Amino acid sequence: MFEIFGVPSNALFGQLLIGLINGSFYALLSLGLAVIFGMLNIINFSHGAQYMLGAFVAYLLLQYSGLGYWPALIVAPILVGITGMIVERLMLRWLYKLDHLYGLLLTFGLALIFEGVTRNYFGSAGLPYTVPDSLQGGRNLGFMFLPNYRAWVIVASLTICFGTWFVIERTRLGAYLRAATENPTLVRAFGINVPRMITLTYGFGVALAAFAGVMAAPIYNVSPQMGSELIIVVFAVVVIGGMGSILGAIVTGFGLGVVEGLTKVFFPEASNTVIFVVMAIVLLVRPAGLFGRRA
Amino acid sequence: MEHVVDPLATKPSALRGQSETIFFVVMVVGLVVAPFVTYPLFLMQAMCFALFACAFNLLIGYVGLLSFGHALYFGWASYLSAHSAKVWGFPPEFAILTGTATAAVLGLLAGSLAIRRQGIYFAMITLALAQMMYFFALQAKFTGGEDGIQAVPRGYLFGVIDLKNEIAMYVVVLVVFLAGFLFIYRIIHSPFGEVLKAIRENEQRAISLGYKTDRYKLVAFVLSTTLAGLAGATKAIVLQLASLTDVNWPMSGEVVLMTLVGGLGTIFGPVVGSFVILVMQYKLSIVGEWVLVIQGMIFVACVLLFRRGIVGEIANWLRLRL
């Protein structure tokens, strides 16, 4: 063991790892928010609640139908994504012509409903969800101990993030999406079903949140308030990164996770607030955000 | 934002010209009679929340800015008011002033950051800053953490009037509420208020007319946070309690809900909305956690079905301005 800036190296690397894990979730959630905002012009306040629902669906699948972690990783995002598409069809659709604020208020209401219902049935205490057998244990890297599950979360999150970036920036489908973001009327005139694309985009964004929720279940406990605590931090991440760029959302998410991890080592009292402080500094120095374009 | 066509554009009758005055008189008479009918403590609490909602409405209704972190000013004013009354031994009027001033300073700091971004970002920034100050409140020693500041003395107003007397306390809260209400009314109907409405309708146009809209927005923001602080500081003296509930994000959501239910951009809406929501919370306290679900449903219903809110709908129906 050696020391870096007077801090034992394993503590430093341990917190860096936790930072990367948190960063994975910030990145996945802010990515989903950015994708939804791009298409729907709505800030999805229920994103945190949908992340929480993903974790709960995984928990329920395990309890009542014996479906383990790996099937849940597919099934839970699909189920939650479908509820998202229903919400979009029944409710969000009516708000596109109105001010952004109404979308925020509606999804805030939905978040309260989701959180309230789960709290009624499961209480506020966290429910445990065990790490799948195939990812138990860990390996010693020489300078630190790396649990397999945590390594998996980082790899999976990076893969999903860059996969999404690739689809949106480099494929034909992504080109349609970007075009519909810029000018939906024109894209519609080309014979592309934009309303259906909007529904699917919302469903995909929500599914991303649920996917993050399933991955989070073994790390944090499954609890009704796990989403609302996270979503506010993710909002700050989005303000820092700006929602204009997919890559920006990913980089900012991971970066801030690491910053938070380092703060836990050097100045633990500030670890809850450091992201908000960074946000304030960014607003002072670069009001449009690190990757944002001046609107 | 959706706006009702000005009902006064058509020829106003004598009644229509006076509708605000008539409703104001009705409200004052109602509030004077009410303590003889129902619990004064409940009414005092409701008036504090009504002032809080009116302050919030000044921003969303008249400048078009959605602050999703108004609990910050309400809660911190409440803490400072409680702390100065209990630990520093301030008389209630100075305790309330201390709390209000705290909210003004915090509002100036948060506002100058938040107005750097428009629209939806403004809401997210105010929410994030409020969350940051929530964590400070959680960690700071003087706030008492999870316990909050309890058993705050109500003290003697101006050194003579004992506020442990419910009637005296009620009169103080009524005066504070009405003063705040009339002050907001005055702001809205001043030339300054007209500029705010111009910014709400079309900020670019207001800029092109030579108005420094950022300054107007900041002043409106500080006015709103100061009044929210006045409400929070008074509440701490009335309920003799300041706690984390007042400073946490659900409180920010609650004030949005009260204003939305009553009617965004109406003068009486926030007052009606806060009474409706508080009565609902009292009546529904038996169903426990379902209150959260019901609040969520009201949000959804308001946004989808009646965006004008209670007062807005009535005003539209009677073709009055309220």
Question: What is the makeup of the main sheet of chain B?
Answer: 2 strands, antiparallel
Give the overall form of chain A.
Answer: globular
Reading the helices and strands of chain A in chain order gives EEHHHHEEHHHHHHH
- Using DSSP, what is the number of strands of chain B? 2
Provide a count of the helices of chain B.
14
CATH architecture title of chain A: Orthogonal Bundle
Q: Which regions of chain A are unreliable across 5 or more consecutive residues at pLDDT < 50?
A: none
| Proportion of residues in helical segments of chain A | over 70%
Uncertain residue ranges of chain B: none
Determine the strand fraction of chain B and express it as a percent band.
under 5%
Structural class of the helix and strand makeup of chain B?
A: mainly alpha
**Looking at CATH, which topology of chain A would you report?**
ABC transporter involved in vitamin B12 uptake, BtuC
- Helical coverage of chain B, percent range: 55-70%
Structural class by sheet pairing and helices of chain A: mainly alpha
The first-to-last residue Cα distance of chain A is 50 Å
What's the rounded overall pLDDT mean of chain A? 88
**Which two chains form the greatest contact, residue counts included?**
A-B, 44 and 47 residues
Strand order of the largest sheet of chain A: 1-2
Mean pLDDT across the residues of chain B is 88
Provide a concise account of the structure shown.
Chain A has 295 residues and is mainly α. Chain A contains 11 helices and 4 strands. Chain A has one domain: Orthogonal Bundle (ABC transporter involved in vitamin B12 uptake, BtuC).
Give a written overview of the molecule:
The complex is a heterodimer of chains A (295) and B (322). Chain A has one domain (8-122, 143-285): ABC transporter involved in vitamin B12 uptake, BtuC (Orthogonal Bundle). In chain A, 71% of the residues lie in helices and 3% in strands. Chain A contains eleven helices and four strands, in the order E-E-H-H-H-H-E-E-H-H-H-H-H-H-H. A two-stranded antiparallel ribbon of chain A has the order 1-2. In chain A, strands 3-4 form a two-stranded antiparallel ribbon. Chain A starts with a strand and ends in a 10-residue tail after the last helix. The mean pLDDT of chain A is 88. Chain B has 322 residues and is mainly alpha-helical. Chain B has one domain (13-248). Helix content of chain B is 69%, strand content 1%. Chain B has 14 helices and two strands; from the N terminus they run ααααααββαααααααα. Chain B has helices at 14-17, 19-33, 40-62, 71-86, 92-114, 119-139, 166-188, 191-201, 203-208, 213-239, 249-262, 269-283, 290-304, 309-318, and strands spanning 156-157, 161-162. Chain B has a two-stranded antiparallel ribbon. In chain B, strand 1 (156-157) and strand 2 (161-162) form a beta hairpin. The model of chain B has no long low-confidence stretch (mean pLDDT 88). Classes of the chains: A mainly alpha (295), B mainly alpha (322). At the A-B interface, helix 4, helix 9 and helix 11 of A face helix 6, helix 11 and helix 13 of B.
